[in-house]
């Protein structure tokens, strides 16, 4: 097991000077990777299981063919791909072991009209060849070059000349971009199609719905929209999955409530899965959800809602994930059944993460009506922006990198000599729970005789997936058939689940009967999960049927008040928001007492990939994680503070002082891009509940001076005025050399801070310690050297600052900067913002090591600066922060700096 501890250490190098290639390191115990180096930098940077090989077959970027994001294979074994912002291409691939120069490629211009390009197709984030057709999911609305808006298209070859000449729009979709419509997947029986879309895509009108659709937010937590505007105009139903026939005539909604799932797949049992994303800007908030593997069942809901309103996985009206992966950007998900791989991997789902360049192998174990899941790192690289992948006709795994116009490549991965059998594996019989779930799902999609009688007993089943399927079956039936059964039900669990169904589908007038019925339940005799279900039933009645009148609200508050506080954080979250919403007499006092002492459940936040292990895999995203982990916000306290922002009554002067002082302290924590904005907006909501005479005092007490008008922490330095540009070394050197005299010291110092240099580097005793001190930089290196290190930090990496990839015997890997080692352990640092926190990694768990080819420094940090700001920054660096240096002009009016 690895351990974390703090140990001071000295950083020795002054600047990156050594070009690192991905070669094995001699680590003292002769533990090296079993996969041989090829001499190809990109291939050798990949981490693979033993006996797997990788080939880089083609680079679209090298051939000015864009950045590829989707693929499929046609009936002749050819690969068809799409540039994210351009054309479709068709490739004839060389066989495994053949020279990649034999690859042939053609641009697909539908109908052969290359002069006008009006019938070209592209911008596809989903491709599928099936039914003698190419299905194309166009994800773009604003380019006349292709004259095809977002939607699902069918391409056909009607004259047999091996070229597509007919385009049929099957359904236009409202949505585009990275959260628009995505993948297209063939059904397991090869008779129909499934499509998946992100949360910026409206659910179109469909012929049928597995569950009556709803756009309700269903949450009494104070609604705070994303303060940076990301999800403020999107749909509250979230991402969705639909089923359709080959002609696109009949569409049926299967599932919704995701954030931005890109792909779906089926295992040998015909069960569907997807890999849903998080919102990295929400790091450090209690409503943040890691990327996760979800079992997509009929009528399923996974609880994504905008801003603060995302549902807890514990709520009974959505389903829990099979596995929380961690931070990342999910793209592809495929099943390995047809691969020529060892059986373990043939039974795995392969989940692609774009941000951190990891393909996870997800192993599934049947568990009741669903599955348990575990993950291992199958393949990784840095950088490796994974987009799409597929098991080819030859049984090899093919995958693409690229997206966002990044450098793009096509790879092939195979096991040994690619001769393993890929004959169908034996399929295990469905569990008894899975059979029951599927019988219940037969009643989804509309009224069916016998549904209520069959489903009713399963509302109290021990299996959550069965209870969910039973409730959806009942909700599909006319309310008149089952409303009285709910109101007369005596079994507590059945009553709770029936009340949730009635709250969602019934009329408001039943509220006065339903609430007393729920209060007849002996709360203390329920299990913790049943108590959460009951609290959720109350909440859904309030938001769907309206807040009860004062008398009835008081009765509910009196019923719940003795149970608060409870013994776990999940229950306290539900109790706090419901009781504060009801204006229960002691709700503020009790919630403030919890706010003062609340601790987070570290076990509940467990993910397959530890956050610290991701920091060095991608500087752009990793440094955000590093900053958060260096001073992690308290999730449970943040929840209580948000809940209390709507409380108008129950405050004493001491409680108000304590509450608003919490915000001042909260602004010192580090979360995602939106964390401070969420906290600040909750603070403003709470201030709006004050008497005008008290506003000024509590505005000051709560930290108004710490945040600017945009809701961001004041940095104490003016921000760059720009306009910036994507600086190249050549352009930057030319600009700096043309005017590096009479520079502005204060502006150079400000740019050193706002370009994040000071976060990791010291200058004259001030700044960070994660990188080399830069005080003597100008005496040792040229302007070009300095600019090259800033603009392209991965080009040269000091061996004393390079990260090391530790390949583990269990199939995973760990990245960190090697601080020291003894005969038993490596001691590594993973967080450049908290370098004193180190981790001990037992050598007995390590299969091999090699140096990472990626700098921990973020590239492009100066891209916000204009020419004058860049000159002042370089002057500040070359002068070593010495204001008396002759390079600076003495001015009477330097840039104003905050003294805070």
From TrEMBL:
The keyword Iron applies. It comes from the Bacteria. GO terms for molecular function: electron transfer activity; heme binding; metal ion binding. Residues 743-881 form the Cytochrome c domain. PROSITE patterns: CYTC, PROKAR_LIPOPROTEIN. Residues 1-24 form the signal peptide. The keyword rRNA-binding does not apply. Pfam families: Cytochrom_C. Keywords: Heme, Iron, Metal-binding, Signal. PANTHER family: LARGE, MULTIFUNCTIONAL SECRETED PROTEIN (PTHR33546:SF1), LARGE, MULTIFUNCTIONAL SECRETED PROTEIN-RELATED (PTHR33546). This is C-type cytochrome. It comes from Chitinophaga eiseniae.
